[in-house]
Design brief:
The complex is a heterodimer of chains A (286) and B (297).
Chain A (H helix, E strand, L loop, with lengths): L1 H14 L4 E11 L5 E12 L4 E5 L6 H9 L6 E6 L2 E2 L7 E4 L11 H11 L4 H14 L15 H13 L5 E5 L7 H18 L2 E5 L3 H7 L2 E5 L7 E6 L8 H4 L3 H32 L1
Parallel strand pairs in A: 3-8, 3-9, 6-7, 7-8
Antiparallel strand pairs in A: 1-2, 1-4, 4-5, 9-10
Helix pairs in contact in A: 3-4, 3-5, 4-5, 7-9
Chain B lengths: L20 H35 L3 H7 L2 H14 L6 H32 L1 H16 L5 H9 L3 H25 L3 H9 L4 H38 L5 H10 L3 H29 L18
Helix pairs in contact in B: 3-11, 4-5, 4-7, 4-9, 4-10, 6-7, 7-9, 8-9, 9-10, 9-11, 10-11
The chains are: A alpha/beta (286), B mainly alpha (297).
The structure holds adenosine-5'-triphosphate and magnesium ion.
The site of magnesium ion has 4 residues of chain A, from α2.
Chain lengths: 286, 297
């Protein structure tokens, strides 16, 4: 009897595998001059299903690199990357990725861009387009279906990218500074919309940003990385602010300010290190 | 072909309130265009008038250099009475046929192999050196060989055209594949695209900007190939017409054939421009006034 319940308990545990787990992950790149560059070093990261995680860190610390590892676009040099308990060997199924730079296809209309995901996954044209129209409406672009990307504003292109990655209803959504090119107001609007859409399907999100305010306002958990080379997780902070949140207003709460100070303390050191590295390098060149 | 739209042409209707800067601007634009066209006409008159005057009535000069009036009358004769080789249109059709068939086969081969080698690293590594060597030989000389092997019919010319067209298109397609934004490929892959789908929907459209650029130049090469082929050995076509004119000291005939070729080339340029416009409709409108690069003629 007790035996049985123990086994039951075990299987329950196995069911709640973390959405993403990095264990001792190192990634080295070969630079054009043939030497090796360690982008991230022995990094551990755990993201629960449905959890919104933000990663902050100085430039060049390996934030984008960790996302490409999770997506399966790159393989780690050492350590393991697991998604839902499966070691990542190829492109991770059920993953959505919003890239740091525009990656929607300029030769496809908004409709065709958004419909791409279902089309590639074998949905017939009609239903795929119907679904795409629905998502275009959800990100607030109804009426722009026939436009080409160059006929849209930067903010609208980000919306297309958002619809494009959400339409496959990914269990894991990777976002690499998705809104950094936008003006402050558009950014706040997009952040709110993101939270709203996230709430509908609850994917596990890894959201990379330079903006600590944005990270705290959006996430359940903020991960601070150390300066590169060999960036790794320095500290993790739980964000216990209540949801639903309104991004523009949340920063006035005392709890937000406290968290900000606490995390900034950790981040500032790394930013300083990264900054002094670049200035030293610049002085060497000069 | 760049179309210049007058700014503010759509929508804004300020015309009733103010006589508007817009109208003044349009007026100025129109005047500017007229000036450009008049100057162009003047340039033509100076060139052809000068030519006519310099040649004058000196018969040796006429034989050596030809004269605009002679070229025109030669064209009229050809059109009305036919050429020594038969009706003029037959010559044009023969040359066009060779150039077009060769152009289509050559560019298709160039596009397919350029993209295949660009996408499949192993193929590029194996075949790269061979292609470089083949590219370095003066291919026009192959024309003689083709005439020997395939005879005086159109096959030898078509083959020469294919060889001339292929390499330009191939290298551009290959380069185009390499220049594809890696982000686009990563994005499509994440969205679930297979390798073939990536090639079809990401690589090909992206490389098309490069490929189209090479098509403009390649059609020039196609015409050269057809004409040189006829020159080397043939019985019909514009190349033969030129050879004939040269053999009978008829400079006007050479020029007249060249005029016809120029018209054909311009027409082809027009259609390739149309194709470009259709295929690259997704691009933001380009600035620029020179429609085509050197066409190789
Ligand atoms: N393919 C590559 N080859 C060589 N080095 C690379 C490659 N990709 C990334 N790197 C290096 O790895 C380091 C981390 O890069 P990464 O793009 O992950 O930084 P990041 O944290 O996203 O920076 P940013 O905030 O500026 O986007 C950088 O120093 C970069 O130069
Ligand atoms: Mg980055």
């Amino acid at each position: 009897m007790s035996d049985n319940s123990a086994r039951l308990f075990e299987t329950r545990l196995a069911d709640v595998d973390p959405a993403i787990e990095l264990r001792g992950v190192t990634k080295r790149f070969t630079t054009p001059d043939g030497s090796a560059y360690t982008a991230i070093k022995e990094m551990d990261l755990r993201v629960e299903p449905g959890e919104f995680t933000a990663i902050v860190g100085p430039t060049g610390c390996g934030k984008s690199t960790s996302l490409t590892l999770i997506s399966g676009l790159e393989r780690p040099t050492a350590g393991t990357v697991e998604v839902h308990g499966q070691v990542v060997k190829n492109i991770t199924p059920g993953v959505g990725f919003m890239f740091q730079t525009d990656a929607i296809l300029p030769w496809k209309t908004v409709l065709d861009n958004v419909a791409m995901g279902p089309r590639f996954r074998g949905t017939a044209r009609r239903p795929a387009e119907a679904k795409a129209k629905d998502w275009i409406r959800r990100v607030g672009l109804a009426g722009f279906e026939d436009r080409f990307p160059h006929q849209l504003s930067g903010g609208m292109r980000k919306r297309v990218a958002l619809a494009q990655s959400l339409i496959n209803e990914p269990a894991i959504l990777l976002m690499d500074e998705p809104f950094s090119a936008l003006d402050v107001q558009t950014r706040a609007i997009m952040s709110n919309e993101l939270l709203h859409l996230w709430d509908e399907t609850r994917p596990a999100v890894v959201f990379v940003t330079h903006d600590l305010e944005e990270a705290i306002a959006l996430a359940d958990k903020v991960v601070v990385m150390t300066a590169g080379p060999g960036g790794t997780v320095k500290a993790t902070f739980q964000i216990d602010l209540p949801r639903p949140r309104v991004v523009q207003e949340i920063r006035f709460q005392q709890r937000f300010v406290d968290l900000y100070q606490q995390i900034w303390e950790a981040l500032r050191e790394e930013v300083d290190i990264a900054y002094s590295q670049t200035t030293v390098a610049a002085e060497k060149v000069a | 072909m760049a179309t210049i739209e007058a700014p503010g042409a759509a929508g804004t209707n300020a015309a009733d309130s103010a006589p508007s800067n817009e109208r003044i601007y349009k007026d100025r634009l129109r005047k500017h265009k007229i000036t450009v066209h008049l100057t162009q006409a003047a340039v033509l008159i100076v060139i052809f008038g000068g030519w006519q005057l310099l040649v004058g009535t000196d018969s040796t000069r006429i034989i050596l250099f030809g004269a605009p009036s002679g070229i025109i009358s030669q064209l009229v004769t050809w059109f009305r009475d036919g050429t020594a080789l038969g009706p003029l249109w037959v010559q044009i059709v023969v040359t066009l046929e060779e150039a077009l068939i060769g152009f289509f086969i050559g560019s298709a081969l160039g596009i397919v192999s350029g993209i295949a080698l660009g996408r499949i690293r192993f193929l590029a590594e194996v075949l790269g050196p061979f292609i470089k060597v083949l590219n370095s030989i003066p291919r026009i000389v192959l024309g003689s060989l083709f005439v020997l092997i395939l005879g005086l019919g159109i096959e030898s010319k078509i083959l020469l055209v294919i060889v001339l067209v292929f390499f330009g298109v191939f290298f551009n397609a290959f380069q185009g594949v390499r220049e594809v934004d890696r982000n686009f490929i990563a994005n499509a892959t994440i969205l679930g695209a297979s390798r073939w789908e990536v090639t079809r929907q990401v690589v090909l459209p992206s490389a098309f900007t490069w490929i189209i650029a090479s098509l403009h130049v390649s059609f020039g090469f196609a015409l050269i190939g057809a004409i040189v082929g006829e020159f080397i050995g043939g019985s019909q076509g514009l190349g033969q017409l030129i050879k004939n004119a040269q053999g009978t000291f008829n400079a006007n005939g050479v020029w007249a054939a060249m005029v016809i070729m120029a018209i054909v080339a311009l027409l082809a340029e027009f259609f390739i421009g149309k194709l470009e416009h259709r295929l690259l409709r997704w691009r933001p409108p380009q600035l620029g006034s020179l429609d085509s690069q050197a066409s190789g003629l």
